[in-house]
Design goal:
By secondary structure, the chain is of the alpha/beta class. It has 2 domains: about 110 residues, Alpha-Beta Plaits; about 170 residues, Alkaline Phosphatase, subunit A, CATH 3.40.720.10. Helices cover about 40% and strands about 15% of the residues. The strands form 3 sheets. Strands 1, 2, 3, 4, 5 and 6 form a 6-stranded mixed beta sheet that branches. It has a 3-stranded parallel beta sheet with strand order 8-7-9. It has a two-stranded antiparallel sheet with strand order 10-11. Helix 6 packs parallel to helix 8. The chain is globular.
């Protein structure tokens, strides 16, 4: 897979004032640190790379590029990438002394392409339905429709924060991203870590299921696969899970859905919104 157009890279260099960049190719975020991290520390040139996703990623050592400086050049990149409709510009700060121990930090920042039209979270906001973002949800959706954004640095913190917010919220949506499955374990082929994270989630599920109350609904899903046993370090293409729970519903097989949009359409129906453009609600399937 090729990197970004020369025109874009040249504009990035000119407007940020960096002398040069490293990379400009598709790569695993962990592997490119092993390959180019030491050269970056020596030259202070930012590492620019992409992946199978529509992303412009910039990796810099926190001792070379302070976070605010990294975020600043990412803002410039975001503006330049709009012309190419690149989905996200991602700041990828890391620490460490050599290729043997370089490690990405939790200070990642996503700058998202402005969505071309309103979506579910915007419609919830219009109806004054609170939407609580836990983890990087707010970044993913360009901060649109979010009532409160709570950053977290681990799956466990995300789970604990979600329970706390559900306890406070009488009506609304708590929208949580557990990033460790992807960032720490899936991309790094860490089977044991992935397994332990699943156990950690399983142990918190009874408390979550109790907290949602008799009329609440819990949806567990993923936007892609990331099998740690699969060769390579990129996303994998198995079906994403869809697990739905409410004390008021009986057990039901929802089958293989035609589109991920079914989840959004279901949430829209729950909060009595007008039907979205895409997807089929499975709310009636659950209640029948």
């Amino acid at each position: 897979m090729e990197g970004f157009p020369e025109e874009l890279i040249n504009a990035f260099i000119q407007e940020t004032g960096v002398e040069k960049i490293l990379g400009n190719k598709a790569a695993s975020g962990t592997e490119i640190l092993k390959e180019l991290g030491e050269e970056h520390v020596k030259t202070e040139y930012p590492i620019v790379y992409t992946s199978a996703d529509s992303v412009f990623q910039i990796a810099c050592h926190e001792n070379i590029f302070p976070l605010e400086e990294l975020y600043h050049i990412c803002k410039i990149a975001r503006r330049l990438c709009n012309k190419y409709a690149i989905g996200r510009v991602i700041a990828r700060p890391f620490v460490g002394d050599s290729a043997l121990d370089f490690k990405r930090t939790p200070n990642r920042k996503d700058l998202v392409y402005e969505l071309p039209e309103p979506m579910l979270l915007d419609f919830l906001k219009e109806k004054q339905v609170p939407v609580i973002s836990v983890g990087k949800i707010s970044d993913i959706f360009n901060h649109q429709g979010i009532s409160a954004s709570l950053k977290t640095k681990s799956n466990l913190e995300g789970l604990l924060t979600s329970v706390t917010e559900m306890e406070k919220l009488k009506h609304g949506l708590v929208f949580t991203n557990l990033i460790d499955f992807d960032q720490l374990y899936g991309h790094r082929n860490d089977i044991s870590g992935f397994s332990n994270a699943l156990v950690e989630l399983d142990r918190k599920l009874p408390e979550i299921m109790k907290t949602i109350g008799p009329d609440g609904l819990l949806i567990i899903t993923s936007d892609h696969g990331n099998d740690p046993t699969h060769p390579g370090t990129d996303h994998t293409r198995e079906y994403a899970p869809l697990l739905v729970y409410s004390p008021s519903f009986k057990s039901k097989n929802l089958g293989i859905r035609k589109t991920f949009s079914d989840i959004g359409q279901t949430v829209a129906e729950i909060f009595n919104l007008a039907p979205l453009k895409h997807g089929t609600s499975f709310l009636k399937e659950l209640s029948s």
